[in-house]
Design brief:
Layout (H helix, E strand, L loop, with lengths): L2 E6 L9 H4 L3 H8 L1 H16 L3 E5 L12 H14 L3 E5 L8 H5 L6 E3 L5 E7 L2 E7 L23 E7 L16 H6 L4 E5 L5 E4 L3 E4 L16 E6 L5 E6 L4 E9 L6 H17 L6 E11 L3 H6 L1 H12 L4 E3 L3 E5 L12 H10 L4 H17 L12 H28 L1
Parallel strand pairs: 1-2, 2-3, 3-4, 6-7, 7-8, 8-10, 13-14, 14-15, 14-16
Antiparallel strand pairs: 1-11, 5-6, 9-10, 11-12
Length: 418
């Protein structure tokens, strides 16, 4: 008998999105409840689609970040599912392995929180046997594969495995319960409901393997559409997948080619048109947080770098009333065709700053080391602002270096003119 379920992961309830909130108090209220709003919409979607159950593959919580009201909020949402006869199956990942909220949650009868020992829940959905297998993290780190501990598939049932994993991992990422797609397929389950990586990933083979991504992005590093996965299992066991958006808030970059623009008023008009188009474009989310990325060769490059703060405020003024907010400006401009104030800089120096320095391994390593040292000096609740892992931190360093290049040239030009 056909049935439907909803798969999500990495909600990080109450995780602080402070980087934007600190810049725009008006948006702070929306950001503060974005993850909760997303979860309420997940429950709404479960009810609207009359799913058989909801699976949450880890990181429902975000470590110690939580209001004392969160367990009560979650229980109220789970009770909405229970009233509709919809089950909920929750796995604990690296961020909520030790979260006190899990212990404080008085789970309704419809909710199962998998423990640190492998277990299986067997269901019968209109006569169709379904087996859900899960194993939560006992500690925040799981450097070894958990797959060998998962139970064997139940014969004749639709077997679904919940796992929080980095899969094969990627450079710069710490391994979390690493395993390969081939190993997951060989285990014999029909569907693997994964969590941990915040980008959607789907593999269709002997098993359907889905990483749904986070349903609500937390910063510009998680730009673009976010979604949950609605899964329909047919009478013949065939699996159909559908992305659904539940996010109230979307982060995105806005490319703005400034090539040839030589007048500040023309630049503002160009920016205004781009912001208007972004605001009017169809989207599922209620609010949009944009980071305009200015590119191209323009005589204004030096002035834009010098007056970035002024241009940022003007961009925010232009966005007012359009249900979008400006995060900050990212500059990738060149000075081709521009006259720097004062004496011209040597071409070799410009090439060194623009091309050689960003690619210098020693400089990138030094920047990463300095950023890691800074992170250690920050309060624990602020450290994620610099990246949640080494790869994210390295990407931040590269981005800041790219943004700082025009400022370096501007300072050098100013000194030369003096």
């Amino acid at each position: 008998m056909a049935f439907t379920f909803l798969h999500t992961a990495d909600l990080h309830l109450d995780a602080p999105l402070r980087a934007v909130a600190l810049r725009d108090p008006e948006l702070a209220a929306e950001i503060g409840v974005a993850s909760r709003t997303a979860f309420s919409r997940i429950v709404d979607l479960c009810l609207a689609e009359a799913v058989a159950f909801l699976v949450i593959a880890g990181d429902l919580w975000d470590g110690t970040y939580s209001s004392t009201k969160t367990p009560r909020f979650l229980k109220q949402e789970l009770l909405r599912l229970e009233a509709a006869g919809i089950g909920c199956y929750i796995l604990r990942g690296n961020h909520d392995a030790l979260a006190r909220q899990t212990g404080e949650l008085e789970a309704p009868a419809n909710t199962t929180v998998f423990g640190a020992r492998p277990s299986t829940v067997e269901l019968s959905i209109d006569g169709q046997p379904v087996a859900l297998h899960g194993l939560s993290f006992r500690e925040p780190h799981a450097p070894e594969s958990l797959l060998p501990r998962y139970p064997a598939p139940k014969p004749g049932a639709f077997n679904l495995g919940l796992m929080h994993t980095s899969l094969n991992g990627s450079p710069g990422h710490d391994p979390y319960a690493p395993c390969s797609l081939a190993e997951l397929e060989a285990h014999g389950y029909d569907y693997w409901a994964l969590g941990h990586i915040h980008r959607r990933f789907v593999h269709r083979g002997r098993a359907t393997v889905v990483m749904p991504g986070t349903p609500q992005g937390r910063d510009i590093g998680e730009a673009g559409a976010a979604s949950v996965t609605l899964v329909q299992v047919g009478d013949d066991g065939a699996v159909t997948l559908e992305e659904r958006s539940v996010a109230p808030l979307r982060f995105d970059r806005l490319a703005l080619d400034c090539t040839g623009i030589a007048d500040w008023s023309d630049l503002l008009a160009h920016l205004d048109r781009a912001l208007r188009a972004a605001a009017e474009a169809p989207r599922a989310e209620d609010h949009l947080v944009l980071r305009p990325v200015l590119t191209g060769a323009t005589p204004l490059a030096w002035r834009i770098a010098r007056d970035r703060d002024r241009l940022t405020e003007e961009a925010r003024a232009l966005s007012a009333g359009r249900r979008l907010w400006i995060d900050k400006l990212e500059l990738r401009l060149s000075e081709e065709g521009a006259e720097l104030p004062g004496a011209a800089l040597p071409e070799d120096l410009v090439r060194l700053v623009q091309e050689d320095l960003p690619e210098d391994p020693a400089l990138n390593a030094a920047l990463l080391a300095a950023t890691q040292e800074l992170a250690r000096d920050l309060p624990p609740e602020a450290r994620d602002l610099l990246g949640q892992d080494e790869a994210a931190m390295a990407a931040l360093c590269r981005s800041l270096l790219a943004e700082g290049t025009p400022l370096i040239l501007a300072e050098l030009a100013a000194e030369a003119s003096d």
